[in-house]
Amino acid sequence: MPRFIEALQQGVDFVQASRFVPGCAGENTSQSRDFAIRFIHAPMLSLFSGFRWTDTTQGFRAYSR
């Protein structure tokens, strides 16, 4: 959480967690869900939104006001 707050204080508008970036890990994620997020949902959402998503179902997001 401190890294989320720090990013927002530095002027970032949107911060998201991801279990797929180096140094992070998912817990209790089934293989089928892991596959669907990495190879179907995140790539398709990235393609259509123009924003590179790594984990589209993560539980932590922060937005600036």
Could you characterize the architecture of this molecule?
It is built from two helices and two strands; from the N terminus they run αβαβ. It has 65 residues and is mainly α. Strands 1-2 form a two-stranded antiparallel sheet. It is globular and about 35 Å long. The chain has helices spanning 2-9, 31-49, and strands at 14-16, 61-63. It is 42% helix and 9% strand.
Topology:
Blueprint: H1 2-9, E1 14-16, H2 31-49, E2 61-63
Antiparallel strand pairs: 1-2
N- and C-termini, Cα separation: 17 Å
Number of strands: 2
N-to-C SSE string, H for helix and E for strand: HEHE
* Shape label: globular
Number of helices: 2
Q: Order of strands across the biggest sheet? A: 1-2
> What structural category characterises the helix and strand content?
mainly alpha
Fraction of residues in H or I helices: 40-55%
β-strand amount: 5-15%
Q: List low-pLDDT spans.
A: none
Average pLDDT rating = 89
Note the main sheet.
2 strands, antiparallel
What is the radius of gyration computed over CA atoms, rounded to a whole number of angstroms?
Answer: 13 Å
What's this entry about, in short?
By secondary structure, the chain is mainly α.
Give structural attributes.
65 residues; 2 strands; two-stranded antiparallel sheet; mainly alpha; 9% strand; 2 helices; single chain
